[in-house]
Write a structure and sequence with these properties.
This protein is of the alpha+beta class. The chain folds into two domains: about 30 residues; about 140 residues, Immunoglobulin-like, CATH 2.60.40.1080. Helices cover about 20% and strands about 40% of the residues. The chain contains two helices and eleven strands; from the N terminus they run αββββββαβββββ. β5 and β6 form a beta hairpin.
Amino acid sequence: MNQHQLITTARSLVFTTTALVSVFQFSSCSEDPEPTNEEELITTVIIDLTPASGGDDIQLKFYDADGSGAGAPIITPDVAQLVSGKVYEAQITLLNEEAGEDITEEIDEERNDHLFCFTPTNTNVTIGYSDEDDNGRPIGLSTYWTVGDAGEAGNVKITLRHQPGTKDGSCPGSGDTDVEVTFPVQVVD
């Protein structure tokens, strides 16, 4: 090996060693970032309503095949008919049908950070919570819908709020919206 090749090899060795030491120091000194809670894609929201005193079950369903894409979601039925004077026990199911995932389980596991908000508009329906988180605050996966007198068609807007570390049980409260769906409803005799 001649002197020129020896100098070139020595420089390469110094450069490689310096680079490795820098990478080692950078990686050993940096803190691991906190894992982020990535927002799940929710393609389907199902509300199963069961009359507490007997009668026909009702299922409200929102399906959005492309998530937040340009395609319009499908909401069934066109107008849900709730029977006057009934109390319905309601269960919410959230799915990501693209990935075959039941998001409901994740919401239940992260109950201290999630809150469903219910906003009835122009309809005689009152919604109360049947479940609570570890701090005694409502979640909304299980609710009861008390139906009053018959009337015109209105809506029930359901909003899932993600409130890590800030949930106080009030709607809408702080945080971000994971999903928001409006179901047309009408109270009938």
